[in-house]
Amino acid sequence: MNKKIPFIVLSTFFLFFLLNLNCGSAPVKDEKKTVQDALDAETEEKSVDAGDYAETIEILKKVIENPPPDNPNSRFANLDKLSEIPDKKALDLLVQYASHKDIAIRDKAVTSLRKRQENAPAEKIEEKLFEIIENNNKTYGKLTASEIQALGQISDSRSAFLLEKNLGVSKEDDALIIQSLGRRLEKHEQQKDKPALVSAEEKVLQSYLKSADDKTLEKLALSALYFSSLKGRQKVFDIAADGEYKISTREAAIALYTDNNPASQEKIAGDYRSLYLKSKGNVDLKEVLVIEMARIMGKSPEEVLNSLRKEIERRNRAERLRKEALEKKRKWLLFMKNKSPKEALGYFMREYGINAGTVKKMDKNLHRHISEMGEVTTASKKFIFSALRALRPKDDYYALKKTGLKSLNNKGIFSALMREVLGFHHSQDLQIISLKQVWGINYSEAVQLKFFFKDKRKTLKEFNL
Questions:
Q1: How close are the terminal C-alpha atoms of the chain, in Å?
Q2: Most exposed residue of 51, 191, 228, 435, measured as fewest CB within 10 angstroms of its CB?
Q3: What is the tens place of the pLDDT at every residue in 174-227?
Q4: d(CA 214, CA 60)
């Protein structure tokens, strides 16, 4: 009996020890999980007084900074919960986490701040957010995905240049940056009072396209420009026409323009025709344009090319005639530099085939009519007086007569008198009769003079004759 007592006592003591151990270890087993459960229960309450938020925020902070080992991602859910708490301490904590050294926390905190901005615009979080992102870029040398997306929504124009600064860091980031620039363009398109903000994003995308070496990103940047505004199609077409861009970029612009253009096929083909005629020396681009036009118009490339060559020949001929006309005008100006209006008019008339005798006859007869004004009232003198009045509306009768005695040496008198006669009569026969009487010339000379005035009206106006 004495030998069994120590064993029973010992067994009882050991059992008591195990029970105490189990009971004491229950709360220690997963203390963090217990905190999270308590937090979840607390945040489920729908009506919490403002004074109760301090404890909730503190619990959230503990879990964010030291999450349970079996649920490390709970910190991200708790950052979202912070964004929903209408308390300044919650906002301050989010701002603090938005600059956290852990990139995952930093990224999620920025997303939560954007969410809070949507729910509470009065807090003006956007201004703080830009400063945070700008400082993070300086500190860590790289933007997170959420920061890039946030810059696409922030109205501060400096966002475009911060995005541009980060272009080229990585292809994944470049894709997000281009998308954010596109969103900024769409946003500013709705704000017509801020045109300067639009040009900033356009400039960044256009600059990127001039050096882009990735076809996927190239297409993404073109799409951002194309779909950003009502003028997007024209912007992309301008890139296709601009020789500063690489051929591959211009070809991609053409493909995008064709595939997404709601205009008629004839209009698109006409745009490409115009682009082809302007594209000097770019053989590869011309080939793409010919193929596109042939596909749109349902013709063979050879037919399209022959049509374009004829158009080029016509334009070259027109350009040659234009240059000849300019050279002719230059010679006229040089010749008439020291000539009187009467001598200049005589030069143009002789060039047209009207002889010098006709010009002298016209000048003499005009002088006779003006010198006789006031003595005899005739239709010819009424035409002459109206022409003089049109040239010098402020002069009285005697001043007009004195000026008119210069005859064809009055600047503009010939054209003014021809307009009076031809404008008064609708009948061609009456026009010829009046011209004979006014100028003192015969029928054939009057017919020739009428055609001279109609053909050379523009030239006469240029030289004020």
A1: 151
A2: 51
A3: 999 999 998 888 877 666 555 444 568 888 888 889 888 888 899 999 998 888
A4: 44
The C-alpha angle with vertex 381 and arms to 347 and 411, in degrees rounded to 5, equals: 35
The mean pLDDT of 306-321, rounded to a whole number, is 87
Domain residue limits, the chain:
341-462
Given this model, what pLDDT does residue 42 score? 46
Percent of the chain with pLDDT over 90: 6
Residue 340 makes CB contacts below 8 A (sequence gap 6+) with 409
- CA dihedral of 313, 318, 323, 324, whole degrees rounded to 10: 100
pLDDT at 394: 83
CA distances from 357 to 351, 361, 367, 406, 444 (A): 14, 6, 16, 18, 14
The residue-averaged pLDDT of 292-314 equals 87
Taking CA 249 as the corner, what is the angle to CA 248 and CA 255, rounded to the nearest 5 degrees? Answer: 90
pLDDT at 454 over 70: yes
Distance CA 211, CA 234 (A): 21
Of 248, 258, 244, nearest in space to 291 by CA: 258
pLDDT of 436 higher than 50: yes
Specify the DSSP class assigned to residue 142. S
CA 37 – CA 177 distance, rounded (Å): 39
Looking at residue 218, its amino acid is E
Tokens of 155: 């109205």
Under DSSP, the state recorded for 281 is S
Residue 90: how many other CB atoms lie within 10 Å:
22
pTM, rounded to two decimals: 0.56
Residue 464, Cβ density class (10 Å: 0-12 exposed, 13-18 middle, ≥19 buried): exposed
Which two tokens mark 112? Answer: 């939560």
Question: What average pLDDT does the chain have?
Answer: 79
| Residue 20: pLDDT band with limits 50, 70, 90 | very low
CA dist 61 and 101 (Å) reads 16
CA distances from 170 to 29, 98, 223, 244 (A): 44, 22, 20, 25
Instruction: From 59, 58, 23, select the one nearest 38 (Cα to Cα).
Output: 59
CB burial of residue 8 (10 Å; 0-12, 13-18, 19+): exposed
What does the radius of gyration of the chain's CA atoms come to, in whole angstroms? Answer: 44
Q: Which residue has better confidence, 123 or 407?
A: 407
139-178 burial code (b ≥16 CB/10 A, e <16): eeeebbebbbbbbbbbebbebbebbbebbeeeeebbbbbb
Nearest Cα residue to 119 out of 145, 94, 156, 152: 94
Helices (H), 280-405: 283-297, 301-335, 341-352, 356-371, 379-391, 397-404
